[in-house]
Amino acid sequence: MRIPVLALDEAVIFKPALKRCTMKIPFTTEQFFAVFAQYNLAVWPMQVVLNLAALGAVVLLLRPRPWTSRVIAGILSIFWLWMAVVYHFIFFTAINPAAWLFGILFLAGGLWFVWTGVIRDQIPFRFQGGIRSWAGGLLIVFALIVYPLLGQVFGHRYPAVPTFGLPCPTTIFTIGLLLFAAAPRPRSVFAGPLIWAAVGSFAAFQLGVFQDLGLLVAGLVGLAAAIAAPSPAHPYPQGKGTQVQG
């Protein structure tokens, strides 16, 4: 499905400051932000729904129930499947053929959250305090509050803005939540977010989305957490993941 790119007034487009970067991309900055505009206008009010779902995951983290881990993993899976199908496959492929590969990455990530977190209950989300929880909390606040505010500071204006539910802020949020996953948990759940953190960080330099520098920071923090925390030597019995003590 090909979607024509909207012509936007240059006043709402933030020009990239670092045009000297040499990585080739098959679209212009104007086309990139125009896709954001098309997406935001087409899916409204899903941005509100996605933000409320994110806040719901945070509430469950702070006020846990026996089924909390499965529900949080389910919310993450919905985010990643949404980004795969709605953003990458339907919108971003209009200007970037690589979006088909990106969509497959997000589709795999979403299905992996379903398998490990929802079906097998292997991602025990739990607020435990300590530096990892503080880092996770800061990333969540950055994704939901600081990220859109920085967009305003850098000159981005709705609808030509990356809202929550699009890959970069949602990946930061995902890594933030994963920092609350008690050990042992599969390191593999970090794979999709860390790959996108590496890919998406280029937008900060080439496309003027400087709030995506937070994605680079989130990727480094997530990588450290994935390396440091032990993974389970054997899979949990089904339904037992939330009973493991961190």
Shape: globular
Radius of gyration: 18 Å
How much helicity do the residues have?
55-70%
Indicate the proportion of strand residues.
under 5%
Total tally of structural domains:
1
Task: Output the structural class.
Answer: mainly alpha
For the sheet with most strands, the description reads: none
Helices and strands, in order, run as HHHHHHHHH
Distance between the termini: 46 Å
Number of contiguous helices? 9
Number of strands: 0
Mean pLDDT: 87
Query: Which stretches are low in confidence, meaning pLDDT under 50 for 5 or more residues running?
Result: 5-22, 234-246
Can you give keywords for this protein?
246 residues, mainly alpha, disordered C terminus
Structural features, described:
The chain has 246 residues and is mainly alpha-helical. The chain has one domain (28-234). The chain has 9 helices and no strands. The protein has helices spanning 29-43, 46-62, 68-91, 99-119, 130-153, 167-178, 191-200, 202-206, 213-228. The N and C termini lie far apart (46 Å).
Topology:
Layout: H1 29-43, H2 46-62, H3 68-91, H4 99-119, H5 130-153, H6 167-178, H7 191-200, H8 202-206, H9 213-228
